[in-house]
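#onboarding

Welcome to the new folks! Below is a worked example of what a typical request in this channel looks like: someone posts a single protein sequence, and someone else replies with the predicted structure as tokens. Don't worry about understanding the tokens yet, we'll cover that in week two.

Example request:
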Amino acid sequence: MADRRSRARRVGVLGLQGDVSEHTAVLAGLGAEPVVVRRPADVAGLKALVLPGGESTTMSFLLASSGLDAELEKMVADGLPMLGTCAGMILLSTKVLDGRPDQRCFGAIDVRVRRNGFGRQVRSFETDLEVKGLDEPMHAVFIRAPVVEETGPAVEVLAEVEVPGQPGTRRPVVCASGPVIVSSFHPELEGDSRLHELLLREVEGD
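Example response:
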């Protein structure tokens, strides 16, 4: 029974670069079957996909060179549940405002983002976020994190944060639209599984 339930929650983790092992550990702890996705054949039977933090331009290049860009396009078109953290959010966005001309984004969620929008490594910060739908605050660490500058009408903002050094200026840092959830930070590095739990609820709701 446990094995059948695990396979019913077969969740891919894009394994080209970034926080792959951290996401697979969180998913396994929730009883899902994590699958590291490095080539097109790895996507067979997936019920959801996690795009981890890392370096978004490198990940964009590796998606193209591995042939996974076409598979990701198809999964987005099919409405597969997805979770994108940090660089993963950039890849799932509709537009990267300061990206390279050849940088891909896949339009899974209607947000426009700015890379390193909170500043470089020295501007990293931590805070406790009130996230809509969660009972307790989520501790968030922002490391060279992207900023959501604009959201489309179908996007629900689940959490915002005040931009350091800009009192009164708040930006979305957790957003959802349909079966897609994105965050500017890395919940997997804090061992907080609650965004992954929201993803698995989307899987079970199919």
